[in-house]
Amino acid sequence: MKCTVGALSALRNLFLTACATLQILSSLYLYKCSVPACAVLQVFTFLDWRRHRSQSRYIHHIQTIRESGVVRSISRPVMIVAALSAVVAMYNHLFVVKPPWLPAWLPSPLTVAMEPIQLTTIALSLLLVFRTNASYARWEEARKSFGAITTTSRDIARQVLSWLPNTNEGREAKDTACRWLIALAKSSMVHLRDEHDLRQEVGSVLLEEEVARLESSGNRPMYCIQVLSHIFSSSGLPFNLVVCLDENLTRLVNAVYACERILGTPIPLSYTRHTARFLMAWLFCIPFTLWPYSGWAMVPLAALISFVLLGIEEIGIFLEEPFSVLALEHLCGSCAECIQSMRRSDTEISERVGGKGLQVQ
Amino acid sequence: MKCTVGALSALRNLFLTACATLQILSSLYLYKCSVPACAVLQVFTFLDWRRHRSQSRYIHHIQTIRESGVVRSISRPVMIVAALSAVVAMYNHLFVVKPPWLPAWLPSPLTVAMEPIQLTTIALSLLLVFRTNASYARWEEARKSFGAITTTSRDIARQVLSWLPNTNEGREAKDTACRWLIALAKSSMVHLRDEHDLRQEVGSVLLEEEVARLESSGNRPMYCIQVLSHIFSSSGLPFNLVVCLDENLTRLVNAVYACERILGTPIPLSYTRHTARFLMAWLFCIPFTLWPYSGWAMVPLAALISFVLLGIEEIGIFLEEPFSVLALEHLCGSCAECIQSMRRSDTEISERVGGKGLQVQ
Amino acid sequence: MKCTVGALSALRNLFLTACATLQILSSLYLYKCSVPACAVLQVFTFLDWRRHRSQSRYIHHIQTIRESGVVRSISRPVMIVAALSAVVAMYNHLFVVKPPWLPAWLPSPLTVAMEPIQLTTIALSLLLVFRTNASYARWEEARKSFGAITTTSRDIARQVLSWLPNTNEGREAKDTACRWLIALAKSSMVHLRDEHDLRQEVGSVLLEEEVARLESSGNRPMYCIQVLSHIFSSSGLPFNLVVCLDENLTRLVNAVYACERILGTPIPLSYTRHTARFLMAWLFCIPFTLWPYSGWAMVPLAALISFVLLGIEEIGIFLEEPFSVLALEHLCGSCAECIQSMRRSDTEISERVGGKGLQVQ
Amino acid sequence: MKCTVGALSALRNLFLTACATLQILSSLYLYKCSVPACAVLQVFTFLDWRRHRSQSRYIHHIQTIRESGVVRSISRPVMIVAALSAVVAMYNHLFVVKPPWLPAWLPSPLTVAMEPIQLTTIALSLLLVFRTNASYARWEEARKSFGAITTTSRDIARQVLSWLPNTNEGREAKDTACRWLIALAKSSMVHLRDEHDLRQEVGSVLLEEEVARLESSGNRPMYCIQVLSHIFSSSGLPFNLVVCLDENLTRLVNAVYACERILGTPIPLSYTRHTARFLMAWLFCIPFTLWPYSGWAMVPLAALISFVLLGIEEIGIFLEEPFSVLALEHLCGSCAECIQSMRRSDTEISERVGGKGLQVQ
Amino acid sequence: MKCTVGALSALRNLFLTACATLQILSSLYLYKCSVPACAVLQVFTFLDWRRHRSQSRYIHHIQTIRESGVVRSISRPVMIVAALSAVVAMYNHLFVVKPPWLPAWLPSPLTVAMEPIQLTTIALSLLLVFRTNASYARWEEARKSFGAITTTSRDIARQVLSWLPNTNEGREAKDTACRWLIALAKSSMVHLRDEHDLRQEVGSVLLEEEVARLESSGNRPMYCIQVLSHIFSSSGLPFNLVVCLDENLTRLVNAVYACERILGTPIPLSYTRHTARFLMAWLFCIPFTLWPYSGWAMVPLAALISFVLLGIEEIGIFLEEPFSVLALEHLCGSCAECIQSMRRSDTEISERVGGKGLQVQ
């Protein structure tokens, strides 16, 4: 019976210690919780690629570890695991040293065999990596969908510029279309991000009155597309070409709603939560398994293990909402620039190459 | 021969105990089985994302563990595994303590080596995670397909509004088309869910007589598309534009049947069942392997292991039928709102931008 | 030298025993080999989904284990592995008991260390699960391709019904097109399945003479599409609409040949065979590794391990040819029903909504 | 110091033995190296599927092991690993037996602990299986792309046959188009395979002069498409239908260049080579790790392990260039047959169904 | 307390040694860091495939190991791990030999148990292999996108050649279009690579003045497409055909921006960095775990383990920016050649087949 009592009291103590630790730490933990600003918002250049591939990247990775958003985000839970490890190691150490002041009724060392934990390691690793991959797929789809908005805008600009005649009326229609295409990209950005102000973004391309109308509309990107749709249907272009422009508008509608879909639907919460709970339970068990293998080295080891696994989970969460991670300003800016540069070179090209323009048949 | 007899009787006892346990528990188990209501039916906002990424999410995950549908669903099988573990642990404990009243003929402790079980752990983890991923892929396809219905509806509304003339007849056709587009989204939702009532959903947009006709039709979403098809073909629009509208109708047909396909075809049952049986056999073996490693700690460990693995399987089952998990009401509502807001702003835009409208050529 | 001789004779005996066992069992094995009839051929309803998710599914999985096609298919190889385990266990048991009649020259117990086998477990598990996933991808593509046939047929019916005029000639063309669309779905099913009779399937929709012509054609689904193609090109519809119908016909051609491609090209045989041989070699080694860990418990353990792994392989083979697993009859039936119901409601809708029909421009 | 010297000399001897073995074996190895002819070039029928699923497949897999191309390809490296294992086992065996003639200065047995090797097993298995999957994806894409050539050819034949009038000129154009469509499929096959002769393949469908022209052109499939393009643009068909035909020609161009892309770009060589080197280093280490676990049984075990892993790599290499594995002749043949059968039944169908043909509008 | 002091001083020494080693090595390491030139820039021929599959490939892989870019790239970090291993081994060896000059206060041997490290091996392997797969997916998408540019250029050339009349004006338009199509492919290459000079690449196809205009434009590939757009809209072709050409231009725009997207957006840096840091921490721990298993053999083993894992990471980095790895020059060259050969054979084909050309309707 002594053995049972010993085991039971060991369990009780294990839980009591854990609960107290959790209580104290969670209050400290919540003291200040903020989402770190992410800084991955520029587009890669050739120089960046050269650095990215350079052999010095390993040293760079070590040097930047303190500035990393992921590392800062997970530093608290990692420290909690390390603290728990230290408590467990101290307790177990006392049993080896057996100082005279140690009460005799204390249960045996806090250790759990590692083998049962190992049984779940594969499932945990797979879940974590697959979840991160699902987030990465969302990130990539978001990049493609927002890219579809800016690319299709350029394509529509190209069509409008080469099809509309260079009469006064045609020139005005070209200008209006270009302005609204730029406004579409920018209002999509505002729609998908929390921090932007619509008036500030589109103020330079739209008229004051248009901005007000746009601002008061229900779904702003859709309003821009509706305006474009009306511009094209009343442009006097032949129906074939109107249809061709309309196909591009349909692409824009699909791209805008693909972005909205990604923003509005996270990976099913039960999936995310189960993975996180699995990871937390697993990380909570780890400190109790390491003492027989590593002694005091278990503290850095537990910190390391929790660092790498929590890091994978953090990246998964981080990429799940991709619009705050993507360089949307840059994409909108280069789209606007490209449309304006096409507008500028339009007259020159049309004079040289296609002086005659579209011929009514 | 004694050894054989011992081994055989151990096996026999193992099976008898297991059968009795199963018998008793399965009757208790089936006492009340209900599908838990899932509550993941709203769309994510910026605030939700901020919470989702916050460092306090770990504490939130612990606090909400009791409200989680997945946890409630798997609580029974987890408790069964824990109870089995407790029985095994008690039996094995008796052999260590050897109380005088223990009959001598009882077989040796109930333990099986862990190594043979470990051989199958990788295959089990892979199967579970891949199956969950297949369910997640279904969920994502369902989200995209239903999204295609609402997005294409908006796109058709845009086309109709900018192409039809603002004559009385044209305005009426615009109204009718918008009404039937909203009815399509709502009747698709009713088609894909069990709990909705068609009359209640579309009563506000369709006339009484139309609702009756729709209700009595074989396939309701298809009926709506057929009506739209007739509206467009008799709208007097040029053929090019009729074809362009028809392409969007084809997209609607494909999206509706993609949803129906997902609802009608689960992941092949042999796949699902084999995974579940594999998991059940594996979880049944686990309690017999843990005693030498963990002693009484095997009870929480077995509960933990079964919790994480059954949870993965439960999520796979949960996401396999995605329409009861997706926020279809919200999607339909925002689609209807968008179409109505486009209808409202149509006159204003067409007056300002495209006063002339489509010109007959 | 004694050790070498011992090892060599152990090896020799191991192989001799294995060969004899294989010889005897393979003749028994081939006594009656039949492909079990698969019964997964209906479409899921809401009730099925409720059962599918119910907590009582675990008990259901146990109860139906005897009716499962997969279990019946793999019962023989599982029994062979179990029998081999029993032989090995008996042999090894004799060495523990050492009965006096045991000849002294018998080699040492038949055991192989488990560690070398474990080195290949990950590769085996990955191969098995990936191969099953490849089969699942084929199954899903088949479902989508056949679904494309039935969905596009409905879409063509919708187009024809709303575009052709309600004159006598137009009505006749509508009827003919609907009949051939139904015939297309049914002859595709006959084309992709072994067991159906064309005449019986399409006898109710086509005329006697048409059936004969269809039956004698080289590729029957293609013949139906060719007929439809001629119907549309001579329908007198404007070219824009003919082209629009033709795009749907192109989709039908692609869907029919996607199905034919899946049926005609299995996963490369070298892949399938290497996986199967790997699994067989691995399962053959397992019984020799389990004795030191499990004693007589190795017999159920070996049966269990072979059950789960052979089951995964069997499901992979089972899903590789998906058309005998999919509910093609149901799909064809609901397609035919939908087309007929659309045909019925056509007059009513066209009278109410689009009284004027297409206007020649 | 003795220990160091012992360890160092063990290492030295290990490397010397390995080098000598490699030297001798590589010369033997290169004695005759040929790519085995692959025989997987027919299309599956219902009978094949029945056999494929039959329970007797396991026995069939054993019986055909000697005829398998993969097995023959990897037999040499497997034998090398087995020979190396035998040498190591013999050396280690001598240390157990300690014959009197054994020189005293020989280092300790050639063994390396298995644990460090196991650390890399997961990465190796994942790399191998993922690489094989990448090859399988190439194979599938090749199958789909070549299938797109033959399917789109049939679709173009269908369009041409139902659109061109049955005048003398129209009939001639139909014949020419059909001939060039067949020539396209065949010249694509010649383009993608090494062994075929163009003149022999297309001699039966094209005129002598046309064959010469085709033979001397830069890119033969593209030449065929160019000819078809000219035929259609001068066919006198309405522009809508010319555009519809041209969309199919665009599909053909894309399919031809997709095939060319697969043929011209292997999986990045660094990926392939690193995987192969990883595997070779791993297999070289294995024989040194097995002695403590398996004694002389390590020879068959090492052969088995190298067989399964080299087999996976071999299949990856084998499927990477898919055109020599696919049944291209069969696909071309059935495409030609289908086009010819459509040509034959064209008159009959057009007389019965669409007597009027396309009406000029 | 002695034990604690011992463990702590062991830890301190471990860290001090590691820091010093890192300090010294990182300065040596950064002495000269250059990106190795990659040489995988040709297209595969039948001969290459034969060699690729030949059984002599294993020997070839060994022979080329010194020329491999990946091997040269990772040689430094591998050597660092090997050097660290040697230091650890030497230190541990001293404790076994216990030379008299060894100070007594030195802590115990530098070893950490392997089991805690093994817990993270699966997650590390999965992360590495998945990251490499994500890079491979980027590589494949880049290949397809650039392929879409060259393929669509050929397709446009085909359309232009078969649709424009063979009048003087038509011939000139054909020539101009072909020239700008070639310029598009080449300026896309210049846009996506760092090392090329635009003037040198397109100097042979464009006029001096055109080159200057192209060079000064904002986005050069887009400028080419804009010019093509104007050429087509003023070509006098019927609107249907202009639309058909425009669809191909839209494809070009999408392909160009898909390439730009891949170049501008690497895999999220947090993902890449976390994987690299995980790998570095893991590889740093490995040398401390190997001594009890392998003694001095740990030096080559640690080198081998770091070689294979760093190699996987290096390939992931290498394929992440695919345009410097793909044979873009070859693709542009064969595209230009194909367009020119089509231009040459155009007159001949059009005379023989389609003498009449497009007929105005």
TrEMBL record, chains A, B, C, D, E:
Its main location: membrane. Pfam families: Bestrophin_2. It is found in: Cell membrane. Keywords: Cell membrane, Ion transport, Membrane, Transmembrane, Transmembrane helix, Transport. The keyword Signal does not apply. It comes from the Eukaryota. It comes from Dunaliella salina (Green alga). The chain crosses the membrane at residues 78-97, 117-134, 276-293. The lineage of its organism: Eukaryota, Viridiplantae, Chlorophyta, core chlorophytes, Chlorophyceae. It is a multi-pass membrane protein. This is Bestrophin, RFP-TM, chloride channel-domain-containing protein.
